[in-house]
Each structure stands twice: as structure tokens, then as C-alpha cells.
Amino acid sequence: METSCAAISVTTPGRVCLFGEHQDYLGLPVIPCAISLRITMEAGWRSDMEIRIDLPDIGSREEFSLAGPLPYVRERDYFRGAVNILRREGFTFSRGLDCSVRGTIPINAGTSSSSALVVTWINLLAAMSDQNASLSPEECARFAHRAEVLEFREPGGMMDHCAAAYGGVTAIDFTPEFAVETLDVELGTFVLGDSGEPKDTKGVLSRVKDRVLDAVQLLRRREDGFSLARAASGELPREGSGLTSSQLELLDGTIRNRDITREARALLKKKPLDDRRLGELLSAHQTVLRDVLGISTAKIDRMLDAAEEAGAYGGKINGSGGGGCMFAYAPVNPEAVAEAVASAGGKPRIVTVDTGTRRDAGNAAA
User: Fold this and answer.
1) What is the pLDDT along the chain (366 residues), one digit of tens a residue?
2) Whole-angstrom Cα Rg for the chain
């Protein structure tokens, strides 16, 4: 039976990674920022145990039953994965749902559309479970990370899920223990530019992550207790380390990005904010991502150059890289920056910092 009105609506933001790109899965701090492009999911009750999810933005539809086990039928079967994760946590479901999903987050472009979708689905499922649960941002992030990454043995970290769940500007630590710090900072506008170049998120993440971890393991055989969190910039052992020059360069770049992130975190806590310095640090981060990690593209480099020539204070590629989006910090005259990005072949959007996942409940407990 189709429902005529939504019992609940959940909306979740996309994100840009300000600092710490390719750092979260190494246990190093990251600073993401939720942006004003969102996914919204509406759902209403059914009289049976069926789940029907319409995704008109991509011309797709998901259908499955909650009566019995949920085996996976495709790679990255996130909708079924989220149900399975919550079931293992003790959630139960006695009725099915009719759902629709719409969004403004660019898909497969580095702005965390898939993580925003999974956080939205987790939040909605918990609310419409028999437990009628209200999840904390940390619970939303952890369950979503398990459903999207761990359940399907993906290489990504937890940054995207935290950004989507908490919102705002956050500093996330993974060692010595997981912690999310909400930064009290007012940022100006950003110009997000979609290059239109397709991304191989899984492939890029695996390639960069594996290269760094292989180099770290080699060093640990020589120096017991070696840690990327403690290693000093420029002081990596060269002679007899067993590392190639490219491996040493990669580790140096990783440490430089770590230090840029630490400086940015301190900067974001100062009032008033030095917007110019923030832009400089974004561009310094981009230099490492482009020249050392090799995740930028010629088109994205042109878009960033055009943005800075039009008055942006700095910017970088966004997400795992190899295509997708860039963003520029443009607290002054963002319209001119957007025009410059468009002239370089990108699809620009002017965005601001936004709140985390939230739901508007109607009769969800009925």
C-alpha cells in the first residue's frame, strides 16, 4: 500500500574536507566542513514489510523485504547493509516503508554524497524502528561508517560520516582515541566547482593508502614504535631505511599535510579569523596533494588557478581525488570566483557552512 504523506523527513549535508585529505585512515586528524548542499529522504509507513525507495535523481529504485534475512545482491549494497547493521545493534522493524530521496550534492564528485545518503538512511531507520530511537551524531556516524565501509571492506575512513552527522566545522582525532571537536568559527563563502571528471574513489583510496602503509611498515621494522603522528618533518631516516625515494617523498608529504592540518586547527580557534592565512594553508595542502600524492588533475588545477586569479584566497581538490570537485575559499565577491571557475570548465556552486543531519518528525511513532 502506498502512503500519501511522509511520516518523517531526514536531511543531511555534503561536505568539503578543509584539511587532512587522505589522513583519516592513517589515524591522523582531519578538519571537514558540512556544506549547504544536502540529501533529503522522506518516508511513510506501509501496511506490509516491504521497503520501496525511489531515487528519481539517478533514475533508480530499491525494493526489498524486511521479512527475514537480508543477503546482499550487489557491491556496496548500502540500503540493506544499514538495516543489517542496526539489526545487529538490537533494532527491530515491524512495518515497511515507502521512501523517496532527492538531493543537491554532486554525485561521485568528492562531496560525500554516498556517506550523506547512508547517514540519512541510518537516521531515518532508527527513527522508524520499533524502538523509535533518536541517535546521537556519534552513533549516526559510527553506524553509517560500518554500513558503508566496514560491511563491504571499503578502504575509506570515518571523516565523511562524522561531517555529515555533526555538521558545522569539526576537528576529528582518531588517536589516541576517537574524538570530535566542534570548532566555533564563522567562515565565509566557498565556491565549489565540479570538474565533471569521473572519480575512482575506491581505486584512488586504495592506491594512496596502501603506498603510505607499506612505507610505514618498512620503517617500523627498522625503528620500533615509528608513528606518523609523532614523526618530525624532515627527519625521516634516509640511510638504510629500505625505502625508495618515492616512498620517502610520500611520507614527507603525509607529515607536511599533518602539520598543515595542525596549524589550521589552531588558526580556526583564533578570533578574529585570519581569512587570508586560511586560504594560504588550503593552497599549501593542495600543493602536497597535487605534487606528492598525485591526486589532482590538470582541469582541477586550472579551475583553482582561475579561482585565485578572480580573488579567492586559496583552495584545493576535494575528496579522494582523481577527478570530482575542487573548492575555493571566497569570502569576498564569490560570484566573480564562480564565474572564473565556470570559464575554466567547471560547474560552480556557492556554498556556506551548514548543520548536520536532522529530522523533521511527524507521526513517526504512530
Assistant:
1) 344 455 899 999 999 999 999 898 888 999 999 999 999 999 999 999 999 999 999 999 999 999 999 999 999 999 999 999 999 999 999 999 999 999 999 988 889 999 999 999 999 999 999 999 999 999 999 999 999 999 999 877 899 999 999 999 999 998 889 999 999 999 999 999 999 998 877 677 777 878 888 888 888 877 777 888 888 877 776 655 678 888 888 889 999 999 999 999 999 999 999 999 999 999 999 999 999 999 999 999 999 999 999 999 999 999 888 899 999 999 999 999 999 999 999 999 999 999 999 998 554 444
2) 21
Domain ranges of the chain: 8-186, 190-351
Q: What are phi and psi of 270, to 5 degrees?
A: -90, 145
Is the peptide bond preceding residue 71 cis, with omega within 30 degrees of 0? no
Superfamily of domain 190-351: GHMP kinase, C-terminal domain (3.30.70.890)
Calculate the alpha carbon distances from 153 to 10, 81, 105, 156, 178 in Å: 27, 12, 24, 9, 20
- Decide if 8-186 and 190-351 have a common fold: no
CATH classification (class only), 8-186: alpha beta
Rounded-to-integer distance, Cα 123 and Cα 139, Å: 9
C-alpha cell at 223: 625503528
One-letter amino acid at 359 equals R
pTM listed for this prediction: 0.91
Residue 299 has which C-alpha cell?
582541469
Sign of CA dihedral 247, 27, 152, 110: negative
- 39 three-state secondary structure: strand
Q: Give me 184's grid cell.
A: 566555533
Query: Under a CB-based contact definition with an 8 Å cutoff, are residues 13 and 38 in contact?
Result: yes
Using an 8 Å Cβ cutoff, are 79 and 62 in contact? yes
> ω before 137 within 30° of 0 (cis)?
no
Q: How far apart are CA 183 and CA 272, in angstroms?
A: 13
